[in-house]
Structure formats: structure tokens, C-alpha cells
Amino acid sequence: MSIKSKIQIALLILLPALWASLFATEPVIITPERPSALAFPPGETVRYAAEFLRYYIKAATGKKLEIIPESKAERYPVRIWIGNTQFATKNLENVSFHPEELLIRSFGNDLVLCGEITSDGLDRGTLFAVYEYLEQALGIRWFFADIPQLYPNGLGTEIPENDELKLTGWNIRKFPYCRQREGGISYYYESVAVQKLWHPVLRFGSSLPYRNANHTQINWYDLYHETHPEYFAKNTEGKTVFNTRLPHRNYICPGETGVLARMIQNIADADAGKPPEKAWGPCPPEKNYVYFAFNDGMTLQKTCHCSTCIRLLRPGVPEAGQASELVFDFIRRYAEAIQIRWPERSLVTLAFHHYRKPPEKSVIPDNVNVIYVSKYMHYANHPAHWNEETFYVKEWSRLLKNDPNRLRIWLNIVAPAQYTSQVPFFYPHLFQKWLRANLQYSDSYFINGLNPYLKRLNVTARQKAVATYPMVYLQSRLLWNPNADVDVLFEDYTRKLYGPAGKTMQEVYRIFCKRWEDFAMPPDADEAGYIHSVRYPPGIIAQINILFAQAISETEENSIYRHRVELFQNHQWLPFMAESELYRTKE
């Protein structure tokens, strides 16, 4: 073959790469040859983060970037490196990461988006880096999840149009201050499809090795009520009356020795892969942890009153401590039995409802971790509630030897919206104050404020969650950074979500905030009466009606901003106003 022919063949081979190198002006997205698995979504790798990035860059700029494996990266002059690439490893070899930390850093025309990877190869930071970059570089916001059956027009996501994609000059590192940031949407509630939609909104996550204990006994009625009725609570007459309509509202007898023996045997059976598989509800035993929680709805009246249990009940004390001695005496015995047989295991349990107050007599073994379920955090602008809640947190911390790994806090803020009223409640400054005061005791939070509505199948019921959206969004930002400026965050929220009506809607929520944060409901107050007589008297309702009308007038018909105003008006404000009118009619 002649030299000329060889040159022609070489040019044919090299020309595509040379052409790409010389004339390609758009960046490409580079993925690792072996992408790490992501902590979330389950089953996904760094490739998911790359595709997420490409989708939103296209939506904002119109540019559809190629996703290229690292082995072909040298052909391209402008690159975005995603996750565990060799390029990132080489250029960040001296960087150590906090749990779930994200990193955004420029190296000339190269941009690296990556994050913390666990010792077993699980990537917990790259997806957060992608979210952060899209928010900062393109102004994209995810204010609430665009669930198609609820909001088919994508009402919760704001994607401004952009001409440029900035790749140079970046040097950002962030990690969440709170190691657990979960709630109604988390790593194990709702379907994964719904979780994916909420993940960029809330940036939920957890870097602690154990999960929350909850609903562990919900199947015990089905499993044992016929063969072992003695396992279950007795009433004041010494009889067991089963709730057949709601089987998960049957409760065990902590004083029955067979209950503890059955639990220990169930752990052994679970380790051996034997049935009953449902003995643990959604929380089966793990290598280092066993989970236990009484079924929801257990009040003093429904707690076992057998001759053994009744000796440890305290009906004459405030509600928070009526069953503390009984419950944590059982927890002590359960933990000690676990310690003898499985010394590597800890018992994770709840301090909830009428046993959320720390016990005064029952010892808390060293292999017990507690999730304290706060009842009044969102009422803590009243000194009585503030003092009670903060005292319980401090005391639990003391009993757990001031080890933040052993104490989590569950903010149970479903009242009053789930049970009493559709009242708009908005308290971001109070939440920040509470968070800052208690972070020294626990940096792990589960917020149960969104989930009760999302779990309803009825669309109308699920849309009640709209009332919680602004607060849930700000809570998620504060769990990442408790020192963030609340007012700046909320100004950004209203300006971007409502566009030309942003200032008016900010005033609406400023009133909501003032009516909640500046008016402290006394502990003995009638909640509905306080809401309609003090928080939202007729004059305030009239003022808010004027503001909603103004916001409507400031937006164009059929615009996304008009639809967002109408969404919050129709599903938050109007139901409450109807409720308020009904209350005054009955008064």
C-alpha cells in the first residue's frame, strides 16, 4: 500500500475525533467506566445523575449534551465529569468528604460534580452536587413534586430560560448539617416513583446506620390473636377485647413473659430465614439492629391494665409520662435479653405519646437507641411547650450518655391540619430556633408533616398536603443548613414560584407566619376556638382574601403563575375559609 493511501486511511479514522475536538463547542457529560451505585434511587448508578443533569440542562437551555464514557473523554475539550471518574479521583486525591457531601469544582474547562462515597462504594453525594449545580448555575428550583396525577402541568418546578451554561469558576463544597433528613418522603415511605419526584425538592437522606422503628407490631393480631391471646393488652376488667375492624390497633401486654420470649425467638427465626416473616412489620431485624414500636393509637385507656402492667402505669401524672415506666421497663428487659444473645445488636425504639417523657426509674441499657417523638414542636412559641419539649430532649440525651448517635428526633407535626383544622400554619423562624437549640443533642430528624396526606389514595385528600408545601420546603433547607437566612429563602421561594404575584404571595405567607409565630396558644386552650377566634379572626380573613384577589389579578390567565396561585388558594385557603364560616355559624 502506498504512503498516500495509508495517510488517507489514517485521516478517515482520525477525522471524526479531530472534527469533534476542533469544532465541538458544547460540553459533554463524562461518566465513569464503572459508575458507583447511588444511595438513592435504589438500583441506580451515577448514570442516573448524568441523565438527570442532561434532562434539566436541555429543559433550561435547549442544549442536549452527549453522555460519554470516560474512556472517550480525551476527544472532547469541554467536559462535565459526574461521580467517581478517574479524573475526579486524580484531581481530588487529597480531599476527604463528610457524609453526603457534594463537590462542584472547575479545572479549566472541566467541571467536576461528585460527592462522598462510602467505604462499601455507595455514592451519597453526587446527586446532591447535580441538584446544587442546576440550582445555582441555571436558577432551577424544585418547590414541590410534580406528581402527574395531581399537577399535570409541572406546577412545582421552575425552570428559567438560559442561553449559557457556566462551567468555569466553580468551587463549592456542602454537606448536610443533619445526618437524617427524612419524613413523609424518605428512603422507605411512598413508592420509589414518588420519592424520585420529591428527592430534589427535599434532598432527604440519612447517613446513620439504622432506620426509624415504627409499626413493628402491626401484624401481631393476625399472627397470634387466636393461638396466644395472652400476648395482648387487658382492660381494667382484666379482659382482652380485640379491635377486629382495625387489627393494627391492638396492643401487646408488656408484662406478659411470653411476649418477650416470642420476640427473642422471632429474632432467631429471622436470622435463620424462618417464618413468620411479617412479625416485624416493615422493620425486620438487621445485622446490628432490632426495632420495636408499639402500634399507633395506644392511649392510657388502651394500654394493658393487667395486674403486672398496672403497677407501672401513672394515670395521675401529665400525659407524656403516664406509661413511661411501663414501656421502658419492658424495653430494658428486651434490650438485656438481646445483649445476652446478640451482643453486637442494639435495640431501636420510640419514645412516643404517653411514654415520650423519659422514665425516672427504668434504666436505659447501653444497647438502646431512642427516637423521641415530639408532640408540640410547632406550638413551642409558648414557653410551656418550649420548656417541656427541650427538657425532654435534654433528658433523653443525658440518659443516652450524650451520644447523638443514639438519639433521633421525630417531629410529629400532623396536628392540627390532619385532625382539627385546615388552618394555614407557617412557622419557619420557630422551626429554626427549635432546631438550633436541640442540634447539640441530636442531628437526626424525621418530620412527619407531609406523609399523612400523601399516603391517602383519594386525590382530594392528597391535595391537602398543599398546605404544608412551603413549610416542608423551608424545613428541608434548614436541615441542610440551620444557619441559612429564612427570609432570604422564602423571598426566593415566592419570587420564583409566583412570578409577578411574588410580592403579594409573600405578604400572604408573612401574615400566615405572623398569625402562627406571634400568637402562642396556651396548653389548655381549645384548639379550634383559638384558631378561629385568635389566629384568624374575620378581619384577618378579609385581608387575606384581598391579597389572593390581588395575586390573581397580577398574573395572566392560564399562566403557570396563575395556576400556582389558584392551587394554593383552592386547596389551602378556601377550605379553611369555609371551615371558619361554619365555625362562626355554629358559635
Automatic annotation (TrEMBL):
Keyword ATP-binding: no
Stretches assigned to coiled coil: none
Any one Gene Ontology molecular-function term assigned to this protein's record: hydrolase activity
UniProt-listed GO biological process terms: carbohydrate metabolic process
Transmembrane residue ranges: none
Pfam entry (one): DUF4838
Presence of the UniProt keyword Hydrolase in the record: yes
Keywords, comma-separated and alphabetical: Hydrolase
PANTHER family, per database record: ALPHA GLUCURONIDASE N-TERMINAL DOMAIN-CONTAINING PROTEIN (PTHR47406:SF2), COAGULATION FACTOR 5/8 TYPE, C-TERMINAL (PTHR47406)
Name listed for the protein in its UniProt record: DUF4838 domain-containing protein
Species the sequence originates in: Victivallis vadensis
